[in-house]
Amino acid sequence: MHEIPTVDGIPVVNLGPSEQPRVSDIDKRHLETAEDAVGRPAPSRWRLRLSAAWWRSLQYTGMALHFLAHKRPPNPTFTKSIPSTISKAKGEFTLQFYTPKGYEHAAKTGRKFPAVVNFHGGGFTIGSGTDDARFARFVLEKCHAVFVSADYRMSPENPFPVAVEDSADAILYLIHTGPKLHIDPMKLAVSGFSAGGNLAITSTLCLADHLKALKESSTHVPDHRIRAVASWYPVVDYTRPRTLKRATSVRPDKTLPDTLTSLFDASYLHPPSLGLANPYLSPIKATDEQLAQALPETVILYTCEWDMLMREGEEFATRLEKPPIGRDVRYKMIAGVPHAWDKAPDPTKPAEFSEELYRECCAHLSEAFERA
Questions:
Q1: Residue ranges of the chain with pLDDT lower than 70?
Q2: pTM of the shown model
Q3: Of 3.40.50.2000, 3.30.70.1400, 3.40.50.970, 3.40.50.1820, which CATH number belongs to 50-370?
Q4: What is the pLDDT of residue 42?
Q5: Residue 7: predicted pLDDT
Q6: What Gene3D superfamilies is this protein classified in (predicted)?
Q7: pLDDT digits (tens, 9 = 90+) for 142-155
């Protein structure tokens, strides 16, 4: 049977063999601003909203099929709408709480659970906080932790840096209110997929800067500790042209189609003057000092062999492991799979390798939670 390529659960038409991208000299240069990445004139924000709405409806259908495969993933136990406190774009966003066995008795027993704060994929433009429910099941069962998935505000309605700031706010919320929710703020971790994999990293950078500012203003912040970051096939460098990433991939025909990446970039990378080397956007451009200050001891990073983002993810993992950053990096490149392969809309079975790798990731998370 012919394999239908998908992106975050959406069936898409990809490039044919005769349409493989070619790299020109201009493609090899690093991009400096959003205008360099999106082009001129940029699509109207109104048109981007219509396109995003269309792709969101397709993605919803794809994820509905994805959830049908046995074993069915859990539903959220409860939700919380919280106000943004970091972003200048004031508003609210929702946190989806999935709770492990025994949580219902925590008020009587006084037990506090670890928590994994998660960010969904979809190019910062499509997707939902419930998309990673299959991963949530393993976090609940293997880590015995609360899984908190953020419905951060998306673009084009809320372009960069709102998603990063909301993600940092989600962690900050658990730092302040965790004990009331039977969560131990000393045992937090962050995870994310694709764009969410970027947020799992950049949210810690944003949070570190915010906490530093609070400390300088003598604002009290409860004791807390982020034990690990788990980032799945993240984008970490927006200064590299998409055409270069696609053309230098192991399988250019299996990479994200230009139809979607153009929508994602035009929606998120705004205004045109936005600098693409901003660490909240391209964490690979952060200084060693910034990364050493913000990232926890354990960094878990997965890339996909056929993904255009594989090379930058591998480069980032190698950098984090070496001095002066020196993190305990658990890196794995998953052979023979495209970007977001684990979100395949197959109602008959989970994606190949996905459950084994979710289990492995949770073993790393559990180890990080158990460290003194």
A1: 1-28
A2: 0.93
A3: 3.40.50.1820
A4: 86
A5: 54
A6: alpha/beta hydrolase
A7: 999 999 999 999 99
